Amino acid sequence: MTRGMAHFVIDKMIRGVTPILWVDTIYGNIERYVERYFIPALRQMPKYKWKYRKVINDLKIKGCVCDFRSADKPENIEGFGYALIILNEAGIILKNRRLWEESIRPMILDHKADVIIGGTPKGKWVKSDEIHLFYELFQRGNPRKDLQGAEQSTAEKRNNSNWKSFNFSTYDNPILDPKEIDELAGDISPALRDQEIYGKFIDRIESGIIKGEWWKYYNEEELFRQRIYGVFQSWDTAFKKNEENDYSVCLTWVVAESGYYLRDMFRKRIEYPELKKTAISLFEKYMPDKVVIEDLASGQSLIQEMQRETRIPLIKVRPDKDKTARLNSAAPIVEAGRVFLPAGPDFTREFRNEIEDFPGGENDDIVDAFTQFINEVKLKAGSRDPRIFTKSIKDMRNKRFNRYKK
């Protein structure tokens, strides 16, 4: 689909359509798509007729221009009008309704732009009470169905007459081998098969491993009224800060008599020197009893330097299961209502969304840090009774209470 839309844009520019906007997830993807899908086609034309400027991310063909912009920086999109707008990877970028309502929609007016919205669906819901905008817009072009799956009324059909929706499966792609598709389909769950192979909008509330209604919420007063037995930090590390790289995530947890309380979340793409400084800074801020780091790849360097240069109490872990198995192992604790999230901070929603989206979401760094903590605590104390990990924690609980309260 991406390749086809790239050729479609080139064809429109040759025919004089301008200006055009292409919106994608991150600039790293845009650069790859230009190199793989645009450039080979453009090289069939005389070089003087086209120019791609990588620094400012635009393509010019015979006086026509196509701007390439990243959805994670909507402020760089606003303020222009376009004749044609392409929204690629809509299942990911349209989780943010503001991108459409505040940035894209106003730009349609100047030229009465055509808009093509495409991608693999990522469920009908962003969260339990918020419908996914990609699904909502797709249903506008489906005259037989409204958002609840019923036939649209005459008024709805009239209001949505400018919309058209299309659905294709991976088997419809003539350049892919059906046998390889069969092999892929056999390796993933039925829900993901419907989504990734057949392009269906599945009800992610039912298909995810972790259900949204399982989470419990707390405020500080509730936490400080009970015994606190320990504080853990769990790191999932990545070294590079390019937009296509993984995030580094640190989750800070308080272990109390009623369960596990998420106290703080750090999530950022950073280089190693900043990662090391941040790890020390977060340790000094919360003074956890243990810091859990995966003893693989980027985590190994961090472990080695922190052991050599600090007295931070580290736990090195090596996962013996895949990501899905680790989250399945942690799920019963969440289902039992023993995982508590803070009611106020912005990161709570980000934490929830990534865990509930797994395994179909865009990122899994938070998932890795979460399952690493839960499974390590289960190993130390058992899933039903997160009691004392060391005598020193028991002896220090009143001091810890006062420190957090302060």
Structure description:
By secondary structure, the chain is of the alpha/beta class. It folds into 2 domains: 2-172, 3-Layer(aba) Sandwich (Rossmann fold); 212-405, Nucleotidyltransferase, domain 5. The chain contains 16 helices and 15 strands. The chain has helices spanning 2-14, 27-42, 90-93, 97-107, 133-140, 154-159, 178-187, 190-197, 204-207, 220-224, 272-286, 298-309, 323-335, 347-357, 365-381, 391-405; strands at 20-24, 50-53, 58-61, 64-70, 84-87, 114-117, 125-127, 130-131, 216-218, 228-236, 248-256, 259-268, 290-294, 314-317, 339-342. Strands 9-15-12-11-10-13-14 form a 7-stranded mixed sheet, sandwiched between helices. Strands 2-3-4-1-5-6 form a 6-stranded mixed sheet, covered by helices on one side. Strand 3 and strand 4 (64-70) form a beta hairpin. Helix 1 (2-14) crosses helix 2 (27-42) and helix 13 (323-335) crosses helix 15. The protein is globular and about 70 Å long. The model is unreliable at 382-406 (pLDDT under 50).
The CATH top-level class label of the largest domain: Alpha Beta
Quaternary organisation of the protein chains: single chain
What's the rounded overall pLDDT mean?
Answer: 85
Range of helix content:
40-55%
Percent of residues in beta strands: 15-25%
Rounded radius of gyration (Å): 25 Å
Distance between the termini: 55 Å
CATH architecture call of the largest domain: 2-Layer Sandwich
Choose one word for the global shape: globular
Strand tally: 15
Structural class: alpha/beta
The CATH topology name of the largest domain reads: Nucleotidyltransferase, domain 5
Number of helices: 16
Neighbour order of strands in the largest sheet:
9-15-12-11-10-13-14
Largest sheet: 7 strands, mixed
List low-pLDDT spans.
Answer: 382-406
- The structural domain count equals 2
